[in-house]
Specification:
The protein has 211 residues and is an alpha/beta fold. It is built from 4 helices and 9 strands; from the N terminus they run βαβαβββαββββα. Helix 1 packs across helix 2. The relative contact order is 0.20. It is an enzyme of class 2 (transferase). This is Hypoxanthine phosphoribosyltransferase. Its cofactor is Mg(2+).
């Protein structure tokens, strides 16, 4: 909820070099892991026995993606049919120098056109945060023209923001207030990616790592 006070930092261990830079723990690492495992079960139930192409949206999504893939593989190993999984990584760029190009440019990953006509392959996007939804709509429009068997979106976080275009991922880890959060690969100017918990950064931390 918006008025959730969070967890006291003194209840957890976290890197000493971030002492004084955080307000509170919003989501502890253990809860993230358990929730990700449940998402994996829901995904496997929906996708069934199709092979899965997992597209990790960098940079913030890499930790969520890695943990999600590990849970998916464990489920596959313990089922009566092996599900092949392939992971690729993509980044988005909407600016060249300081000028907007007007549309999202997808960087990295193999040629997505190789998915065309593969009716046995489902595509799963793994993303860190969905805010306005514009990024995911751009990604989906770029891949749906190849008509893969199924396209799903898993996002660790969804922010309640007035700028949202109402896009909702198929799988959501946590819905959170419109706060700037760090940790679990989410960064502030490349800092805090090594923090396991998802935390709210304080004003001192923002000023300390401002560029």
């Amino acid at each position: 909820m918006d008025d959730w006070p969070g967890y006291d930092l003194n209840l957890f261990t976290y890197p000493q070099h971030y002492y004084g830079d955080l307000e509170y723990v919003l989501i502890p690492h253990g809860i993230i892991v358990d929730r990700t495992e449940r998402l994996a079960k829901d995904i496997m139930k929906d996708i069934g026995y199709c092979d899965i192409m997992i597209l990790c949206v960098l940079k913030g999504g890499y930790k969520f993606c890695a943990d999600l893939v590990e849970h998916l593989k464990n489920i596959s190993r313990n089922s009566d049919r092996f599900v092949s999984m392939k992971v690729d990584f993509i980044r988005l760029k909407s600016y060249r120098n300081d000028q907007s190009m007007g549309e999202m440019q997808i960087i990295g990953g193999e040629d997505l056109s190789t998915l065309a006509g593969k009716l046995n392959v489902s595509v799963l996007f793994a993303k860190d945060v969905v805010g306005t939804g514009k990024t995911m709509r751009a990604l989906l429009s770029s891949i749906e023209k190849y008509k893969p068997n199924m396209v799903k979106v898993a996002s660790l976080l969804v922010k309640r923001t007035p700028r949202s275009d109402s896009f909702r991922p198929d799988y959501v880890g946590f819905e959170i207030p419109n706060l700037f959060v760090v940790g679990y690969a989410l960064d502030y100017n490349e800092y805090f990616r090594d923090l396991n918990h998802i935390c709210v950064i304080n004003e001192h931390g923002k000023e300390k790592y401002r560029v």
